[in-house]
Amino acid sequence: MEQTSQLIAHAGARKLSREDLKALPTPEATATHRPVPHFEIVEALSETLSFRHIGVVRDEYAVSSDGMRMFGVLDLETSFDGCRFSIGVRNANDKSMRLALTVGYRVFVCDNMAFHGDFTPVLAKHSKHFSLVDALSVGVDRMQRNFEPMRRQIEAWKGLQLPETDAKLLIYRAFIEEKLDAPKHLARKVHELYFSPPYEDFAPRTMWSLSNAFTSAFKELDPIPQFKATAKLGAFLSGIA
Fold first, then answer.
1. Do 111 and 79 fall within a single domain?
2. Global pTM?
3. pLDDT by residue (tens digit) across 190-201?
């Protein structure tokens, strides 16, 4: 099954394990701001998922040079028909950003603040009344409710057969007519990945296979261009489907 999340650390952050998060310092709380240890957030998220019988099959983390900001991705056990859902998480103890989760079957998290999924169930400030357990519980409940709409969209794309001329026209519109913010030279790569797919699962001539051809080609880009292109892809294809 293809990996569905991507964590990029290129703006000064360093990658480390979940256990390494324990050693990072956490500032003292103030009258208006309650910092939360990054490890505590990850553990609480994993526990909240396990209560709902959702396992984590892979996770990865990065922190800023001073340890104040954390970025992570978690690939979930929850899957269907060759697709896997993932969670992106970020947290800051220096007031630079809120605790946030993003969920989807393609998740992109970068230490330059790029943060993309199909749905964002948590966006919480570290106020003095902030409850981590409550925020994550509500967020995971929202996430589960949105699994079904995301699943239906993927199933619809898998069932939408594309005539060869339609697929070529979409690639043309994306790059030559510049409907997507991506370099034109990737048009050839998308064409190759769609018409000569490296994975058997992507062999059917469907909208889903074309979507995967685009995202696979985007992986050749640097983090920012990759994020911009991937973020606009769903809307572009949905407008056609």
1. yes
2. 0.84
3. 999 999 998 887
